[in-house]
């Protein structure tokens, strides 16, 4: 495999010499700035063999580098071995990101030709790179190399086309489109072009499955004061629900246009100002604005902030989805415990499949919200471990097992991680397990002033680990959509200085961890709903309420490390889990849950 990837890089360099390119830049995204792209857009995997979700690649005549964060360091080193591609670490002290690296590499060049896959790189990213090189004293020529996939990828998959269906969202699509029109008017724009797929799905109250695990439809949405056009590729879908959905949209004044016609349609709006979010608008489409006579107003999409604050309907749906997801998790954990006690052979993959089967029995289940991370022992030390389908390690009756998973339901999206003891644990495993649980609980108990961003309370989850001189390289929490992406913003819980404050109705994950390469990993994750606490002379106060319903494994806890408030929180949480889930379980499973919640 490594020799094959090295040969593809050699072919790419031959193309670079033929076209006088100094560097080729690839991002692990698609024409819509998606975190999880469809198979067609996984060029980095095809070129380098790296399968992680977050990576960018630069190839020059002398160097090939892949930039990714700490979730994937171990994985990247393994997968890039023998390819000639060097790992560049991000989100670490002293990091050198791609713009700065290119500026240094070509600082002595009077002119630098950068080839980009213009279809799958954000306009904002190209602008940052251009600025960095120009400040270093080299003029920059950007070459749109959207055809380079043909050099490195034979049999490239087509753009997917899957059925489209409408969902109840607690608001009409007309209301959401009108919100967009108001925001455009406030920004001095005549309209808006949405590129981000989750924002389009949210605005139109539609879902699909063009991207695995993500209920999106590959498309663009253009809204002005006078019309609304949805550029979508559904010619090959013969499905009654799709036909009905598209017909309903058309009857509501939303014109259905061919996906490929978005560029050709821009001249229809000549003389107008269109608001665009250049973090998701691709470079090729952005370059079509000026020739079409359309002025681009760059700003963060108003949809990001709007969809982050869930309405009452969405909150109720998320609560309901988490009850059914909790039932599936409890049935799975009981099955796993009984299977190992009976000396059955259970691999990491077997466990992942079984959990999916339990989820599939829940009402409204549409599929997983991401690929289940089922990891035992050393595998759990990789935060984004990929469970092998064949040859997966067997679970043993000792040590720790980590399972990070989630479901997509008609009324919500879930994301949960539980680390459990499969038998005797070492003192270090128990200590790590408990310190991470302390961090999880301390964040879940947080009370903070309205207007506080996540970067100011992220330390609550880390402080118990820091006192023991331990830490983790990923963020503590991310937003989660309503039957949308399992990762969404703009809110977050991480050390990055993200200024977006928490508001009631926002949902965020709480998932600190510890990872020891070659030994074990621990992560505990619930989804939390931000709610109003109280108001007094000192201001308005917010707190978190857990949505996730599943017991923590108390057998692995070193209770000497928990303080009184943490124990009280854990007892109250387990009482809530028992109260919500036990009426929905058969008698034997309910008794098992009772032991787990009150032992």
How would you portray this structure in words?
This protein starts with a helix and ends with a helix. The strands form 8 sheets. A 6-stranded mixed beta sheet has the order 4-3-2-1-5-6, sandwiched between helices. A 6-stranded mixed beta sheet has the order 12-11-10-8-13-14. The chain is 35% helix and 22% strand. With 599 residues, it is α+β, with helices and mostly antiparallel strands. Helix 4 (98-105) packs parallel to helix 5 (123-135) and helix 17 (564-581) runs antiparallel to helix 18 (587-598). It folds into 3 domains: 2-152, Creatine Amidinohydrolase, Chain A, domain 1 (3-Layer(aba) Sandwich), CATH 3.40.350.10; 165-307, Creatine Amidinohydrolase, Chain A, domain 1, CATH 3.40.350; 309-598, Creatinase/methionine aminopeptidase superfamily (Creatine Amidinohydrolase, Alpha-Beta Complex). Strand 11 (228-232), helix 9 and strand 12 form a beta-alpha-beta unit. The chain has 18 helices and 28 strands.
